[in-house]
## 1
Amino acid sequence: MEEDLLPIGQFARLGRLSVKQLRHYDELGLLRPAYVDEQTGYRYYRAGQAREALSIGLLRSMDVPLPVVAQVLAGGPAALASVRDGLEAELARRRRMLASLERVMAEGLPSAAVRVVAEPARRVAMVREVARGLEDVGRATSAAVARVLGCVPSGGPPVRLIGLFPMDVGEVVEVSVALVLGDDVGGGEVGGGAEVVVLPGGVFACATHVGPYEQISLTAHAVLAWCAERRHTVRGPIREVYVSDPAVTAPERLTTDLMVGVEEE
């Protein structure tokens, strides 16, 4: 055995990693010992490997996943782009949460004027998108809106869009956006992958949300609380009827009617 090899405990102190971490990284092939004693199984490292150990510790402190760490150590720093994108998305989500929290702090727990409305069945052009969790719902909704708006000729009458979201949100969320069709629009005139269906009518608890789309969950909470207090059985999906055009309306002035189907006990 070469004299410049360090036992695992000494190398751990040098590389600012624990012995347990070094063993784990060895098993993953991320940081192999320079020598393993066949009789004792003891691991030994060279001092020159300390830079690699410190680099692993630095990247892990920035929440870089181990597979990406391996790519970076292999000379692929571009792999960090996906980590950066993920951190930016998480930061945006945290900012939205902070804005909602500040609204609750300023106005108290959400409450809203809830009314009961009867909605007729409507013919709609509907498209669906899959969101990868709650934080991805905004992107999926925007994509669905863009797709459905491309399904009908431009220059026609003002469109009415309805977003449909499941009551319970899991790791995968199916988001649908429906465009209400006029009687003069036939199924053959709708393209772009949209499906012409009938959106069921019924009785709904409805409240008007004024403010950014990211804070609609506050109004949804108020509507669901109102239904629970009156022992109404709720049924999904939750509907968002977009009254304002976000292209010409400031986020704090956006108006959205939030609707939850109800059945009186």
## 2
Amino acid sequence: MSRRQSTRGRWIEDWNPEDEKFWDHSGRRIARRNLWLSILSEHIGFSVWSMWSVLVLFMSPDIGLGFAPGEKFLLVITPTLVGALLRLPYSYAVTRFGGRNWTVFASVVLLVPTVSAVYFVQRPGTPLWVFVVIAATAGVGGGNFASSMTNITTFFPQRHQGWALGLNAGGGNLGVAVIQLLGLLVIATAGDTHPSYVAAAYLPLIGLVALLAALRMDNVDAVRAAPGTQREAVRHRGTWWISLLYVGTFGSFIGYGFAFGLVLQSQFGSTPLEAASFTFLGPLLGSVARPLGGRLADRWGGARITLLTFLGMTGGTALLVLASHTKAFPLFISGFTALFVLSGIGSGSTFKLIPALFAKNAEEAVAAGRDARVEFERSRRLSGAVLGIAGAVGALGGVAINLVFRASYSGADGSGTLAFCAFLVYYALCVAVVRTVFMRGDDRAAPQTDVLPKYPSRVR
């Protein structure tokens, strides 16, 4: 019995979406089905991952959980850090066990942080360390992103990957906004003393997404990583330039998304209801903007769109410095909303740089006389590995943002001005990196040509 035959679940052999005949006949339908289910799973994962950005808004002496702002920031930082660290093993796991199989597992395991939150979050007198442990388990939701993106990049042809990856990531990112909307709904209808309602709402959804993934998703043999793929990706200097940029785009999105409510409470003394009324808007717009960033990158090139994004983020952060110094609430909200939208667009365009970069390397190898099939399969596997690495490093950017906020609001003036100045410097650095590394007069800034090989695929 062959290795594939002994593996449970449906497997697709010799998947090649670059074969236009196969893509038009059946590949597009299969890829889209897996994409929509991947989006659903990742969406729930992001909601669980960002759950503590909502739960901390409820924590007050009224329910026997009167933690200081610094302690609340710790509960926001912890799942961000764990989720970032899990992204590399999650990215590898999907290449070892298959996209369908790993999605089922990654969905079921979300029950651990969710059930724990339901049980403990309304128990007066629960010590901080218990909540830190539960928040850490919520990091599994952040790992979903890496496995999902690694899986989906295999399903789509290179010419459509900006749009497909943008949809996949944007739909997942929406989980941040949705759980914050749910928090607003709970506060508005039941008051700010029932945080367990927020977590409990996800229990049936987790079961549903795990069931749908088991019944309707596929494992793709092409996603399997050859031995040493991640090590090869780590040695490629492009991996680290892209990761640095992704810290500025996705790191900003997830860092601001987790911290926004606490920033409003710390900067302007907002009540839980007031904070929740604004926290969902930025993540919502940023999530919707991410597929747009992928689409724009497909049309105009990832480097060009990423450069424009960082220029905009530099200007938006300058507005926040001014708003923080002058205590101008409308300007503060406007600046933050602009940053969410721009970070969403930039996240989509930055990820477009990955398949474009390795496709270009494959083209050069083929032009030098190497086997086209081998080189483009290697390109696809390296792209998947780099998606995992960049995703992990980018999520660590969210950790850094929350640490900087924590330090800034614990300072003498108790404002976020120093934090925004630090972010301004980083975005300026990213502008310089895009300009000097990815836009040096070659065609990396332009859309890549589809020259990938055509060979048949077998589905069973």
